[in-house]
Amino acid sequence: MDRDWSIDDWNKWWESAGGRPDGEVIESSHHHDTTDEQTEEEDIYAPTVSEMLKKHKSLISGDAGSSSRVFLTFCGKSLDLKWLADEGFDVVGNDCSDFALKSFLEEQGLEYDTSKSEGFTIYKAKNTKLALYAGNFFELTGEKTGGKFDAVWDTGSFQSVGVTDRATYARAVSGLMKQGCKYLLSVTQFKELRTWTGPPYEISEEILDEVFGGNMKWEFVDQAPWGDYMEKIYLLQLK
Ligand SMILES: C[S@@+](CC[C@H](N)C(=O)[O-])C[C@H]1O[C@@H](n2cnc3c(N)ncnc32)[C@H](O)[C@@H]1O
Predict the structure, then answer these.
(1) Which of 49, 140, 172, 181 lies in disulfide reach of 177, CB 3.0 to 4.6 Å?
(2) 7-17+51-238 sits in which CATH class?
């Protein structure tokens, strides 16, 4: 992308395309369980659960084990939502796109109740511990989601936030974190392959210091190739 996207842009995109924001096809055997026989067309954005999330599940399980309350920022239709719920986590996700969240629930065959509260539409799955909040993340608080969280999973989310919104994003995430909360952050390093000027941005460790350093400490956890790119995982915790 060559510029930051507004909520309006995202909503329109979800309603018109319903797939990956830039229509890009990712070739990766790291994230995707595709076989050689499958075409690139089938290997679209995040059709499988994150391997890094599976690998580092214990980091976000915490003392409460798998019953931890976990929040997914900018969740879109991520399959990680369902996987975490199936693993026993109490899962809450947020996306500005009502369309994406409803499509996710319907595609997963999950029955749900709908309610509205304080500017958010809430979709609560009936038979599993999963609630999705449609609305602007920057206006979400722990109170609005029924309490703060034991863990946060952020994949491609902070990275897609406009540079001028990064501090607001960090404040919103902090507001959802209990003391001791494990914030697992996945960022993609594009290196010299990044030819575009807008999001997703390259997130350096200097940016982590600058944006989160005021009230959080971070540590590097893991990295693995993601197609031609590199996925890096960091663990952030309130100081
Ligand atoms: C790059 S996608 C990330 C998708 C997701 N994390 C995944 O792994 O599939 C960015 C998402 O952020 C959502 N979004 C953008 N701005 C938002 C905001 N202010 N509040 C909530 N969601 C937002 C978009 O609708 C889009 O689904």
Answers:
(1) 181
(2) alpha beta
